[in-house]
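seq as requested:
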Amino acid sequence: MKDPGMPQLAEPPPNIPPLPPGETGLGAVLARPNFRRLWIGQIFSQLADKFYIVLMVFLIAQYWVPDNLGGNTPLAEAAAAIRINLESRAQVITLLATGIYVANTIPAVLLGTVAGVWADRWPKRSVMVASNALRAVLVLLAPLALVPGPQWLGLSWGYWALVLMTLAESALTQFFAPAEQASIPLLVPPHQLLAANSVYQATSMAATIVGFALGDPILRLLRNGLGALGIDNGEFWLLPLCYSLAAVAILGIQLDEPPRQTRRVSIWQEIGEGLTVLRERATVRTAMLQLVLLYSLLAALYVLAISLAAAIDSLGPTGFGTLLAMSGIGLALGALTMAQLGERFSRKLLATTGLGTIAFSLVLLGQLRGNLVLTLLLCVLLGLGAALLAIPAQTTIQVDTPEEQRGKVFGLQNNLINIALSLPLALAGTVVSRYGLLPVLWGLAAIALIAALSEQPWRPS
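struct tokens:
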């Protein structure tokens, strides 16, 4: 029995322009101008997030790690004090980049749920525009980190300033993400949500691949190209440009949200309301658990890919990125397929098929390890299964969560997913070292299969 105090499902907002009721697919959802503006904003915002990490590593390599490491540098002495031996330039860059990665992760783990509450309290378009505009202003300060100054733990103050900047940039991102996800159901009707989420997932994966693959060449091109024109530090212009374009695109969205009533409740009470949605709406709870499971499996794959690549002579352990890229291609292809055909099938069937596909791929990856072609194809298949699971789950959360609670629920979702990404990254390598690759792959496949069977696909929806 539903709690009478719980908000009921919201009707589709009246500002969505009508299209023929049966029209679905990629073309139909992109034909909506407001969704198209949100999508363009997503492209530039997510590219900027990836370019940000690449820029930080670029600056570390250019300004704080010399080509010829001396034996008694202040950094080496500081590292030795905590029992870390820095024998190569790559090790130093990796160590300093880890500081950036940690700073980027901390707000994602700590602020996701709280940011989701504010995404419900404030107008969502204003949250998205302000988040991108403030990040554009923030990254304009990055060149100041190159100014000579005092050192701490063997590093210039500029490196530590970039760590603090990364904390602030990641904190602003936590406000953007739930507001963006909660805006999608306000811009497209229910029968196009699956296609809209497919576009969202495909864009996220494409931004990851393009951002990390092309970030360094683009930064070098800007640095050298603008330098030839007499403009120094051209690499610093990319991020403000991307964040500003995202803000401008989203500013043009017409987003009519239901009026908010002033409520005298604390943030923690509102977080509790989001948890109540999960407790009382089984479909939302199940979809959330599916996403947490999926991202845990994908995070474990990031680590296991090193061992899988090491078993292939033509790749070796450093070629693990090729396997991850193939799974990304599979996810993108799956998302595009879902955009066109997903509405023909029930979301339960799609999720079950996705989990089963993931389990099948993990088993065969263990059995056929060492074979380059089959391993690449199985990585594509695994990515396809991830799309079949992630997109219906995200759509279910959007449809079955009351509009006034979506920010809280998506903030909680982002919190759980970031934790789900962190724990396997820390544990997978140790478990593989102790038990071997094959038992770990089988164990992950068994978890995916149990989750698929728990959906009881043989029962009608």
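Strands lie at 151-152, 155-156.
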